[in-house]
Design brief:
Distance between the termini: 24 Å
Shape: globular
CATH architecture of the largest domain: 3-Layer(aba) Sandwich
Number of strands: 6
Length: about 160
Amino acid sequence: MAERQRAEICKVLALGARILILDEPTAVLTDAESTSLLTAIRRMANAGKGVILITHKLREVVGHSDRVTILRQGRTVASNLSTGSLTQAQIAHLMMGDVAAPQRQPSNLQAHGPDLLVAVGLSASRNDGSTAISDIAIRLRRGEIVGVAGVGGHGQAQLCEA
């Protein structure tokens, strides 16, 4: 997939494109493929091409862009911010606004069957060694659906692998 994406980018560059607009180009790539593609994109920018990178992966925003515009519900909430002075947490806050902690409803665990999975203290790292998830606790009983929500690129894949 990474090679196909590179080939498509090379095609448009061969046709003389000076601006690239890439929408979630790393969505289906491994971490290594993503790093390789983003490095190639940086080289294109250094060669004078303009690149707009649309992504939900905050580490890509912080690590591979110069400036960022942040949208929330289709509206611009911040524009032209230097990524050199932003953290992933600050960008997440701008993306999501003030998010109140969800109100936990008491669950009727007796209504469901026996435990199918109990994980306590689950942690996992990304391929680069950085922490993807830390001290996660999940309990799944027969007949339950447990949802896990989060911004893309923040440990969901590592949670599933773990």
